[in-house]
Write a structure and sequence with these properties.
There is one protein chain. By secondary structure, this protein is mainly alpha-helical. Helix 7 crosses helix 8. It has one domain. The protein is built from 10 helices and no strands.
């Protein structure tokens, strides 16, 4: 049944305008970050690492939170149009399974976004004359960023399920991204849900986390994802049609 639900979600998004946001929005922080790196090379002297700090400064705290907010809000917006959510809840499938299918689809979009962001970063590096990108490090940052992003996705999908407005959940996601910057500055980025994505990607100020640090990060992310997913599934199961 889950496979059928996922196919249905994919069909709903097949010709969605959300893919335009997917393609265009990550380009903006890539251009801004690259320009900032080019004009400040006297200070930014660590090549790929410095370029990464500039890309993630704009991506993780501004554009990617908005993009994830759009993903989740749109996935639920489709169901709120013409009372489709009530029709969906009458399907011969558990409501918690329906919520899970939407979460998985949002997660897929997050993964695709991370791949696109990574590709833009490498392209930008070559464009400004850098060579030999640190593939292992980039892959590690994007992988942990995806895990942290899943926390934001699960939270935003929960918010979008309970707020019919399309714009308000996106605004909350944007505010959350900004709050992530504040919590990172206060060394609390490893526990705040909206900081975990940028923390995992080592946004703005890359640093090597210890093995125990990454283990703690993974545990915190799994706990948050499980918590928000459970809450969403329970609310969906008890919701009146």
């Amino acid at each position: 049944m889950l496979v059928k639900l996922l196919k249905a979600e994919r069909m709903k998004l097949k010709r969605s305008p959300v893919w335009l946001a997917f393609l265009l929005m990550p380009i903006i922080p890539a251009v801004l970050g690259t320009a900032n790196y080019v004009y400040n090379q006297g200070v930014l002297t660590k090549a790929w690492i410095s370029l990464w700090t500039q890309h993630t400064l704009f991506t993780d705290f501004f554009f990617l939170p908005i993009l994830l907010g759009i993903y989740c809000a749109y996935i639920m917006r489709i169901e709120y149009m013409n009372n489709n959510l009530n029709k969906v809840f009458t399907m011969p499938a558990g409501r918690s399974m329906i919520f899970l299918s939407k979460l998985i689809m949002a997660a897929v979009m997050l993964v695709l976004s991370e791949i696109w962001i990574c590709a833009l970063f490498v392209i930008s590096g070559y464009a400004v004359g850098l060579t030999d990108p640190p593939w292992l490090t980039i892959t590690q940052w994007c992988a942990f960023g995806t895990l942290g992003g899943m926390v934001m996705v699960s939270m935003q999908l929960l918010i979008s399920m309970n707020i019919k407005s399309f714009a308000l959940p996106i605004g909350i996601s944007f505010a959350g991204g900004l709050s992530g910057l504040v919590f990172l500055a206060k060394d609390l980025g490893h526990i705040w849900p909206y900081s975990l994505m940028s923390y995992g990607m080592n946004a703005n100020a890359p640093q090597e986390l210890t093995q125990s640090g990454y283990a703690q990060f993974i545990i915190v992310c799994i706990v948050y994802i499980a918590l928000f997913t459970t809450i969403g599934a329970v609310i969906a199961a008890k919701r009146d049609i």
